[in-house]
TrEMBL record, chain A:
Single GO term (MF): lyase activity
One Pfam family cited in the UniProt record for this chain: His_biosynth
Protein name (Swiss-Prot/TrEMBL): Imidazole glycerol phosphate synthase subunit HisF
Known role: IGPS catalyzes the conversion of PRFAR and glutamine to IGP, AICAR and glutamate. The HisF subunit catalyzes the cyclization activity that produces IGP and AICAR from PRFAR using the ammonia provided by the HisH subunit.
InterPro entries in the record: Aldolase_TIM (IPR013785), His_biosynth (IPR006062), HisF (IPR004651), IGPS_HisA/HisF (IPR050064), RibuloseP-bd_barrel (IPR011060)
A GO BP annotation: L-histidine biosynthetic process
Catalytic residues of the enzyme: 11, 130
Organism: Congzhengia minquanensis
Pathway: Amino-acid biosynthesis; L-histidine biosynthesis; L-histidine from 5-phospho-alpha-D-ribose 1-diphosphate: step 5/9
Gene: hisF
EC number: 4.3.2.10
Automatic annotation (TrEMBL), chain B:
Matches recorded under PROSITE patterns: GATASE_TYPE_1
Entry's localization field: Cytoplasm
Name under which the protein is recorded: Imidazole glycerol phosphate synthase subunit HisH
Pathways per UniProt: Amino-acid biosynthesis; L-histidine biosynthesis; L-histidine from 5-phospho-alpha-D-ribose 1-diphosphate: step 5/9
Organism: Congzhengia minquanensis
Amino acid sequence: MITKRIIPCLDVKDGRVVKGVNFQGLSDVSSPVELGKYYSDSGADELVFYDITASVEGRALFTDILKQVASTIFIPLTVGGGINTLADFDRVLKCGADKVSVNSGAIKNPSLIEEAAKRYGDQCVVLSVDIKRVDSVFRVFQNGGRENTGLDALDWIRHGVDMGAGEIVVNSIDTDGVKKGFDIPMLKAVLDIVNVPVIASGGAGGIDDFVQLFQKLPAIDAGLAASIFHFGEVTIPKLKETLRDNGIAVRL
Amino acid sequence: MIAIIDYGVGNLFSLKSSLDSQKIDSVVTGDKAVIKQCEKIILPGVGAFADAAESLKQCGLDKVLIEEAQKGKPILGICLGMQLLFDKSYEYGEHEGLGLISGTVRPIADVIPKGLKIPHIGWNALHFPKHKAKSPLFRYVNEGEFVYFVHSYYCADCEQSVIAAAEYGAPLTAAAADKNVFGCQFHPEKSGDVGMKILRAFHELGAPGKERHK
């Protein structure tokens, strides 16, 4: 049976990992290559590199770094951040990315999803959505969760899948950073309307949050987190062993 | 030297890098003369069957692959590259493949239970047929080890050639072989250490010194 995926997310700015912390045995925790390799060696099923650079020079640096990562680490790599055009897809795919995650770029220009899916295949296009409840309605936010687009999140996701998005990352702004667990009701609402893989993001504070996620939502495909892995609060081997002990299929 | 066939389909960066990491010499090429000189061939591929088959034909590489296979040269097709080795695909119509492994390519939706997600994407375990000797391609891999899949179609009607299967509501062909022609539905170049072991075993095929001491 297919296993549940555990995905660390690395924010990269000007070629360095932001929020890198102390890991034993790593000489440079801010190096995307070293940290990526550390996660890959410890059993991460996939890695997400998020480019939060704003400058053109920083972006060129990111593609160089991505090439280094992709020639060192042989698990699936997803790249997001600053993806607005097909040329952006092309740029990161040529450097070894397997999937490309779109967010604001797709909101500005929804045909980006369709064009990218036609050219590179559905499996390559990941639609990442930042969602927050406003008057009990799930709304899509953009610009790092600061701006309400007014879009109904479930409508937007349904539309995205119709246009060819092969995977959905649901990032709950309501639970993000709170570390009290994933947003189970929001994720359930999304799982109910799509038949493509859904990745949960936002809210993981500890191992038990992942156990709860996969037990309460058997249809969820993956859990994504950043800081709890970076700060060593949760190690991937321990997390996966605990999931296995709770009857959840993982790759060990 | 392994020829990684470049026919304008898909991204060959990871495949080339993964062979480099194993210190296996390879060249990305669409040049027939170079392909003929190499000892082994890898046929990659992503995207739609019909487009890829057409590109192979337009580059004149379909004939080269068939000739080299008939000479006994080891060939490994990966993902869509595996499907192209088969007789025919039913992806959006009916399309001829290279016919190097007997069987057809069909939608996984035909065999898996309703409700399971398509594509079959993620890490799944390899199971080797119990009544057959393990293929040399998997000499370094154990039953139940995980590899990375992304596909909506699978190779069917090929029970004789199946050398590994994966369970996704139903058994799906994970790898197949007919003599010197091999195909992997999964991506060894994205399957971490297990994938590297498979690429190494392919590299060592037919090298008598290394075959002897298993």
